[in-house]
Design a protein that fits this description.
The chain has 637 residues and is mainly beta. The strands form 13 sheets. Strands 27, 28, 33, 34, 37, 38, 40, 42, 43, 46 and 47 form an eleven-stranded mixed sheet that branches. Strands 12-11-6-3-15-16 form a six-stranded mixed sheet, with no helix packed on it. Strands 21, 22, 24, 25 and 26 form a five-stranded antiparallel sheet that branches. It is globular.
Length: 637
């Protein structure tokens, strides 16, 4: 018999290894999937330092190990589309040594830069043998915290813990520069560079909190304002969150409001990570606020460098108005650089010139002062001005405004603000290429326009509004009859389905009926109802009808609802495990998404008599809610 491997043999995944082969002792020792502050050199040609994700390999043996034939990946090793990154030629790791890989997605020959990035919301990273299938080591992780690494304690050990003192070194740059290793109160800059980079247990890191909303955005004098904030990771909870507010112009805040996550203060469900607090009505007064989240001795302040401003009881609104925007400019109008950037049109609706000093444009209502108009800029009475939202600059010698943000036509908002806060703007989503949004006649209701009019007055006339469209799902390959209901549909002169004009019939009580041609599976189809050039739109999905019979919550399809189903959902979310045969089984709360709220809801039902999964449950049935999840096969049960 031919001898393939010396010593004791361990064979898996096509690889036959020696029991004393040090390569199979290597460990993924530390990862950082949410690096905000630690700077490392960028790829060749880059002049700026960057904040890549980081993976550290540790060799717990005394032998030198060659890394060249090994791979890293953050995808399922068995999946066809997985992105495998091979260690560069000549790469090696000393005994008891470390090797850091920058996960920045760059492909640079000879450098330790992985061709993938890590997902801060959680996934798995694998160290693989030369067959790209045999797993040497792996770490599966959930939602991470900014600038906090996940490390083995001690090095190469079995305990994984978050630490606020990461210990990566690459190309002379180290995360642990400045760490006080000997405790003398002075930073030890050579501690990391001297290859003494043992992982550190450091539990002093804050929760990651983000302000999710405040309402109303432009409150009346007698209206309180409710602020909600969300803590990103369930395993990095907040001990408490305070809502701080002050009057504009004051340095000192008013007494803090203690925010709640008890399900009784407009904060969603109890313990779901969404917190809420309310600022009392403030009369006619400018107010600024922020939130501070506490976890032991660590705090997170949001926003950290400014306060969010709003004007309570505003009686005079500036005459500056957003009259039209084009969120998806494919071929409508090019700027001075020849680019078809998205644009916003401003209009001075008064009879006097307006100096734009102190005015702002933002695509995030939680950041009213995101982009300031240039100093000295004046908009004449009745004049219009375009702002290109492309993060670019005008061509040399051209007077053109370019905002420092881009517009997302799939889900976005656009607002004007002054020093007091927001005073004009709107939300939008699911927009269509080269169809603009604006005010009818520059002063009327919000509508869409088949032919945008940058630099000119918007069209006037009736504005159709599609309030609902039924059905929302069309079967691929078959014509489908639709009914749209809403306001002003009796003025419709044309219906376009997927860009093609379609025959329609006007019915009673605001109904509009039409037959859509056969559609292609797994597409979203636009419906435009136009009265001249003024229009509204709706969308429907083209996919197999939800006819499958299944039980929601039975994630592993074993016919029993228990803790193993929650484990299956977590595996799908965080370990790259693909759950076939009906993703609707995993959507416990039937919100059309699979996220961490689903296993939490299932565990709450199983162990605390919480809300049961949405229908169909507990008996097999048909999904009552159309969504974009992978449909169940008709034979599923």
């Amino acid at each position: 018999m031919r001898v393939l491997c010396a010593a004791v043999l361990l064979c898996a995944g096509g690889i036959c290894r020696g029991a004393d082969d040090p390569a199979f002792a290597l460990k993924i020792n530390e990862i950082m999937a949410w690096n905000r502050n630690y700077l490392f050199p960028g790829p060749p040609g880059s002049s700026t330092l960057q904040t890549p994700d980081l993976v550290e390999i540790y060799n717990p043996t005394n032998d030198v190990v060659l890394l060249y034939n090994l791979y890293l990946t953050d995808g399922d090793p068995a999946a066809a589309a997985t992105n495998f990154w091979r260690f560069p030629p000549g790469a090696w790791i000393a005994g008891r040594g470390y090797y850091t890989v920058l996960c920045d997605g760059a492909v640079v020959t000879g450098e330790a830069r992985a061709s993938f990035r890590l997902e801060e919301k959680g996934e798995a990273v694998y160290l693989l043998a030369r067959d790209k299938l045999t797993v040497i080591d792996a770490i599966t992780f959930g939602c991470q915290t900014p600038n906090v690494s996940l490390a083995r304690l001690p090095d190469g050990g079995d305990t994984l813990a978050k630490t606020a003192s990461p210990t990566f070194c690459w190309g002379g740059a180290c995360t642990c520069d400045g760490y006080d290793a000997d405790g003398d109160g002075a930073p030890d800059r050579q501690w990391c560079a001297a290859n003494e980079r043992a992982n550190i247990a450091d539990d002093i890191y804050p929760p990651e909190v983000d302000i999710e909303s405040y309402a109303p955005l432009m409150p009346a004098a007698d209206a309180p304002v409710t602020v909600t904030a969300r803590v990103a990771c369930a395993d990095t909870p907040a001990d408490k969150i305070e809502l701080w507010f002050r009057y504009q112009g004051d340095a000192e805040p008013q007494p803090a409001v203690l925010m709640q996550d008890d399900g009784a203060h407009g904060d969603g469900a109890a313990g779901d990570g969404l917190w809420a607090g309310t600022i009392p009505a403030q009369g006619e007064r400018g107010v600024e606020f922020r939130v501070i989240a506490y976890r032991g001795a660590a705090v997170d302040i949001e926003p950290d460098t400014q306060w969010i401003a709003y004007m309570s009881g505003r009686t005079a609104v500036p005459p500056l108005v957003i009259t039209e925007i084009l969120p998806k400019n494919l071929a409508n109008l090019a700027n001075s650089n020849g680019d078809f950037g998205d644009w916003v049109e401003l209009y001075n609706a008064s009879t006097a010139d307006i100096a734009l000093d102190g005015y702002y444009l933002t695509d995030n209502y939680r950041r009213p002062h995101k982009w300031a108009f240039p100093l000295g800029l004046v908009l004449g009475a009745g004049a219009r001005r375009l702002v290109w939202c492309d993060e670019d600059e005008a061509a040399p010698g051209v007077e053109e405004l370019h905002a420092a943000f881009q517009i997302n036509g799939d889900h976005e908002e656009i607002f004007l603000a002054d020093r007091g806060g927001l005073f004009n703007g709107f939300f939008f989503s699911d927009e269509i290429e080269d169809v603009s949004i604006g005010l009818v006649g520059d002063r009327g209701p919000l509508a869409r326009f088949l032919k945008p009019t940058p630099g000119a007055a918007n069209q006037s006339g009736p504005a159709p509004v599609i309030a609902s469209l039924a059905p929302l799902v069309a079967v691929p390959g078959a014509a489908t009859q639709f009914v749209a209901t809403g306001d002003g549909l009796d003025a419709v002169t044309a219906v376009l389905v997927g860009g093609a004009e379609t025959a329609f019939v006007l019915g009673g009580q605001g109904e509009l009926r039409f037959t859509a041609p056969p559609c292609t599976a797994d597409t979203s189809v636009s419906v435009i109802a136009a009265a001249g050039e003024i229009c509204d739109r709706a969308l429907y999905s083209c996919r197999a009808a939800a006819e499958a019979v299944f039980v929601r919550g039975d994630a592993n399809i074993d016919g029993v609802i228990n803790i193993s189903d929650a484990v299956t959902i977590l595996g799908h979310l965080f370990s790259g495990r693909i759950v076939p045969n009906c993703h609707d089984r995993l959507d416990i709360n039937d919100d059309g998404k699979i996220n961490v709220a689903d296993p939490i809801a299932l565990l709450a039902y199983l162990f605390t008599l919480g809300t049961p999964p949405a229908p169909p449950f507990p008996n097999p049935g048909i999904d009552p809610t159309p969504d974009e999840l992978e449909p169940c096969p008709p034979s599923g049960s």
